[in-house]
Structures are given as C-alpha cells and as structure tokens.
Amino acid sequence: MKRIMNWLENSFSPAMNKVARNPWVAAVSSAMMKILPFILVGSVIFFYNVFRTYLPVLPDLSIILQWTFQMISIVLVFMVASQAMEKLEHPQYQMNAGLTAIIAYLMSTMPKINAKSIMTIDFSKFGPSGMFVAVVVGLFIAAIYHWFSKLHLLEDSTAVPDFVGEWINNIIPIFISVAAMMVLVDNLHLDIYNLILDLFKPIQNFGFTLPGFILISLLPAFFFTLGISTWFIGAVTTPILMAGTAANIQAAAAGQSIPYIVCYESIYALSLIVLGGAGGTLPLNVMMLRSKSKRLRTLAKICLGPSIFNINEPITFGTPIVFNPLLMPPMWINSITSAIIVWFAMKWNFLTIPSAALTTGQFPAPFGYIVITRDFRALIFYVIIFAVLWLTWLPFFKVYEHNELIKEQNAPQD
User: Are residues 242 and 95 in the same domain?
Assistant: First the structure.
C-alpha cells in the first residue's frame, strides 16, 4: 500500500495535474464551466414547470429553454475557441476566434439554402447532442488562430497603422478557417458533423453502459482524493451525460419510454450517488459528529452544512481524505456501489429515470430527485444508499479515529 500511495502522490498525481494544466485541455475544461449558466437556465425552466403542472395559469416559458439549453453547442463552440485563445495567451483573438468557430460549426451542420435565401437547418444539432462536435470544431479553429499567431505578421510594423494591422491579423485566420470548412463541406461534401459524432460514438455508447456509468461516477471521486481538479474530465463526461439528458427529454415529450439511465441528473442532480458530494461523504460527516476525537467532532460541525448540499471540499480537504490511504478507498468504493444501486433500481423500474434537466448537484438528497421526477420511492433508496455508504465508511473511519485519538492523547497539554 505504501508503494502504491508513493506512486500516486509522486508520479500519477503530478502527471495528471500536468495534463489538466495543458492549455488545450484547460481550454475545454474552462469552456465546460462557462457554459453551465446556460444549462442552469434550462434547469430553472424544468423546475418551474413542476409548479406549472399544478398551476396551469402560469405562463409557458419553454421558449427560454429552446434558446438556452437547446442552443448549448453553439455556446460551447464559441467558448472552446475563445478559452483556447486565452489559455494560449492570444487575448487579441479571443472574441473573433469564438465568432469564427460559430460560423464553422454552422457550416459543419450542412444547412440547406434555397433560391429565396431561406436557410433550413436541423435545430437539434444546436443542442447537447452536438457537444462533441462543438469541442472538435472549436479546437480546430483555435489551432488555425494559434498557428497564424506564430507568424507575428505586421507586429511592430511602422508601415501600416495599428488598427489596419489588427484588421489584417484577423481577416487572414477568419478567411483560412472558413475556407477550410468550405473545402471540407462544400467541395469534398464531407458531413463533418456526423463524422465527428461517429468518431466519438464508441465512447458515448460505452458511457451509456453500466461499466461506463460506474466509471463516470468513479473518476471524479478518484481524482478528487488525489487533489486533482475533476473539471478536465468533463470534456468527455459532460457531452455524454448531457446527450442522455437531451434524449430523455425528447423521448418524454414524444410519449416514449425513457431510454438512458446515464444522464447528468442520475449522476449528480438527484444526489443519490453523490450523497454529500463525490464519493458519498455525508455518512462520514454524520459519523464524525459523534466521534471521540475532538478535532473530528469540531470539523464535522463545520462541514455538515455544505455536506447536506453536496459540497464536500471542506470535509475532503479538512479531514483530510485527500492523499489519506485510510480514507481514499471508501470514497472509491462508494462511487461504485451507489452507482450500481441506482442503475439497477432504474433498470428494474424501482426508480423513475429522469426526463427533465436539473443540472445542479446542490439539491439535498432525496429532495432533488423527488422534485424533478415526483417519485417518492427515492426516500427508500436514500435510506438504503445511506446505510450502504455508512457501512463502507465505518471500518476505515474507526481505524482513522483511533489514530487521531492517539495523536490527541500524545499532544502536549497547554
């Protein structure tokens, strides 16, 4: 165990932090964070619709949903290109690269324009199903701008005014970007949108399986225990989860059976898997409230409020769980067991699969689940999952508590 911990701390963790700091990876991670307000607006509308079912006199706000949540790929492609310019230290191209990326994304969807200049486009391609496409197109445009920036064209030139030089330095990468998409789409007749989706389809298909569901649940807890930001894995997991959410919403609207257990709500928003935060730390927090260790009792009181709302940074770094060989394994185990329980509960129709967007994980369990699905059976599974997580934490916690008591007994008295 000591050898494994040494490898994790001195080799694996620094390597993963280096990956997370890579400007291209950091750009996608940052873009995923910045689109959350647009996704959350959609969540607000779905939450509002819960009340509207009981109060039909309330106005229909679904148009807001269409122009926020259902346009998320357009927002994402802009953010990816823009954030890449920031991370690659080309702030002068931030805005134009993002706008160029939107143009390139629209071209990738192969819209039809008739003789009357009326453009027809599949609106669904703007939604969560196109997020992988948005990431690739955004990075492609960013790469063109990054390459062009290395030419240092007209930098410190006295031959032309500064504003003319700025125009030229934006005209050229815009022209190259749009021309490249023109060749691919109009001349070579490549369906870029579907080609990219096909490329990522094996990843998405795996994500929709039980092993994929477990992995999506486990990875945040695993990296969290190593003190590594989990946002960088969102580049892969978020498009899968949001695609599941979008497909479930569409199926519900059409009166069809809900197809995907794997969606953002089942992992995060319903709070059953992330009970207290990634790794199910709420039972540990409750356990610490009655600890014989004064330090752990005090810490538990401080962390309980955030834990109830599934914010577990205080307890994870305060206990600490991070790089603690006694408390890391139960976080990993809990991420697996809670995911398995939720998967089979939904698969066997003991729990309703979510068919609305609630993309915030700060609803206390099981209330977030009940609000969005109106399935009160969540109370039963809350008790079951809490008990399973409690039993997992118990032996590890007892050993850790014993060590803490020894430290406190041996500490010099004031």
Answer: no
